[in-house]
């Protein structure tokens, strides 16, 4: 329910205008504003994440915190998982209180405060406050930016996947530039200069978005299922109780830095199961909607497997780049974080190719389950490509080898991520539109947390079992979905 005839008319009008608009590379002009804020948000996010792990495990003399590597990788995985887990909160506030566009705007401000905390607050205090603020803000922005992009297209608009690919290009422009800038500042002036650059980047994005947000369609500001005012005190009370519970569990040692990734995995599993139950049991969705949500379940599970490997760019691959990779070029040593900019370069180059390919193929392009299958199989192959250099000496892996492996990472990503965002908005029941996007991000939360948890099993002295087992598991998951494409498409009821 959208809240009355006037609202319905406004939504149809705004979507209709967007359908005809082709001023932004063949896409609606409003996409440019979301493209911009997401680009700068990714600049700050990946810029900070590029130096986060080494900040934690580098010694105090090197400007770090001196945390052991197993704990540090677990924290990175838990933090990454919490970012995507926080999409639940952002989606709920959008659907019940503020609408997607407003949550997007306020979340960008919270992210900026988080980066400022990392830059100016000392030691673990700055780490804790900064990561919590960035995680909560990023969660609110992620689900709602994607949802707002979805409002720009009518059902059946063949430009949708191409539009999401273009949006994904903005994400990766920021992801490319962020680690370059923060890595240079970190290696030249110190970690807090790098965190400060992330804060400045988010401030630029927030300022730019402030001027363009009014041009977004009216449908982006609609609250689909408004929370009755009488229930506000109950919701505030529950939020305070949840905060007190987390603080108490931390003080009593139940939640610790060394088990954070496990805690986030458990919480994410519970949240995902609860979300599926709530949506599937809702009396407000049709049998067709219910079937589509069931069709989303296999994609959810495969997505978990994919991201549990892909997100090791920020755990295992960071350690690998620091200790095992030959980063010397003509006597100059490349900063560790710059490795995180290789994947975005390929995405920038190839996203346009994939967008053009899907547009040209139109209705003849592979279905989303097939894309997910191929992406997961290719991701497994990428892990197997580490094997020729496994168990090597320090700094023995050539830079070109990692470049080639990350190219395969990118191809796998482009088969899954933009189509995943797109298919979620198409499968979502109207009442649960933004929350289905949050459910999609829960699969990434689970995969990201698992990536942090898996890192404890990585042993540079015996890498063959690690890369072999994970690679073949991913390939097996992809093959299983490929074998089940027909029944999954049947459940998806006309959505491909």
TrEMBL record:
Topology relative to the membrane: Multi-pass membrane protein
What's an example GO BP annotation here? oligopeptide transport
User: Which InterPro entries does the entry mention?
Assistant: Dipep/tripep_permease, MFS_dom, MFS_trans_sf, MFS_Transporters, POT_fam, PTR2_symporter_CS
Pfam families, sorted:
PTR2
Entry's transmembrane regions: 43-60, 72-94, 166-185, 191-211, 232-255, 261-281, 293-310, 341-358, 370-390, 396-416, 437-458, 464-485
Per the record, what is one GO cellular component? plasma membrane
Q: What terms describe the molecular function in GO for this protein?
A: peptide transmembrane transporter activity
Subcellular location, in the record's words?
A: Cell membrane; Membrane
Which positions fall inside the Major facilitator superfamily (MFS) profile domain?
Answer: 1-489
Keyword set, alphabetical order: Cell membrane, Membrane, Transmembrane, Transmembrane helix, Transport
- What's the name of the protein? Major facilitator transporter
Q: What is the lineage of its organism?
A: Bacteria, Bacillati, Actinomycetota, Actinomycetes, Micrococcales
């Amino acid at each position: 329910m959208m809240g009355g005839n006037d609202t319905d008319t406004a939504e149809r009008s705004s979507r209709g205008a967007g359908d005809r608009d082709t001023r932004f590379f063949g896409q609606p002009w409003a996409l440019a504003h979301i493209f911009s804020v997401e680009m700068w948000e990714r600049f700050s996010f990946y810029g900070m994440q590029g130096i986060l792990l080494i900040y934690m495990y580098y010694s105090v003399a090197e400007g770090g915190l001196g945390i052991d590597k197993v704990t540090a990788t677990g924290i990175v995985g838990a933090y990454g998982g919490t970012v995507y887990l926080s999409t639940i909160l952002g989606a709920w506030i959008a659907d019940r209180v503020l609408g997607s566009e407003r949550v997007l705007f306020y979340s960008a401000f919270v992210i900026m405060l988080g980066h400022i905390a990392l830059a100016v607050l000392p030691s673990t205090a700055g780490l804790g406050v900064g990561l919590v603020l960035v995680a909560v803000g990023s969660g609110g922005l992620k689900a709602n930016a994607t949802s707002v992009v979805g409002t720009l297209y009518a059902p059946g608009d063949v430009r949708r996947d191409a539009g999401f690919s273009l949006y994904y290009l903005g994400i990766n422009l920021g992801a490319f530039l962020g680690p370059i800038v923060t890595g240079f500042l970190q290696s030249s002036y110190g970690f807090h200069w790098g965190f400060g650059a992330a804060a400045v980047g988010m401030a630029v994005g927030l300022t730019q978005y402030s001027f363009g947000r009014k041009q977004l369609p009216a449908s982006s500001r609609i609250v689909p299922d408004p929370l009755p005012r009488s229930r506000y005190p109950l919701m505030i009370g529950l939020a305070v109780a949840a905060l007190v519970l987390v603080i108490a569990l931390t003080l009593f040692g139940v939640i610790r830095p060394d088990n954070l990734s496990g805690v986030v995995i458990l919480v994410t599993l519970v949240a995902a199961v609860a979300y599926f139950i709530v949506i599937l049991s809702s009396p407000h969705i049709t049998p067709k909607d219910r079937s589509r949500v069931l069709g989303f379940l296999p994609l959810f599970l495969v997505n978990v497997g994919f991201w549990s490997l892909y997100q090791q760019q920020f755990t295992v691959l960071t350690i690998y780049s620091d200790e095992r990779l030959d980063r010397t070029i003509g006597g100059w040593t490349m900063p560790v974080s710059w490795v995180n900019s290789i994947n975005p370069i390929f995405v920038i180059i190839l996203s346009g190719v994939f967008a053009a390919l899907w547009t040209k193929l139109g209705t003849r392009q592979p279905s989303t389950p097939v894309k997910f299958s191929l992406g997961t199989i290719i991701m497994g192959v990428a892990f197997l490509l580490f094997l020729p250099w496994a168990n090597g000496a320090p700094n023995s892996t050539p830079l070109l080898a990692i470049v080639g492996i990350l190219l395969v990472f990118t191809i796998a990503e482009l088969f899954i991520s933009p189509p995943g965002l797109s298919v979620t908005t198409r499968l979502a029941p109207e009442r649960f539109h933004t929350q289905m996007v949050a459910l999609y991000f829960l699969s990434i939360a689970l995969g990201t947390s698992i990536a942090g948890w898996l890192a404890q099993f990585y042993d540079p002295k015996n890498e063959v079992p690690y890369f072999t087992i994970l690679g073949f598991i991913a390939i097996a998951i992809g093959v299983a979905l490929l074998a089940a494409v027909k029944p999954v498409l049947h459940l998806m009821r006309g959505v491909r």
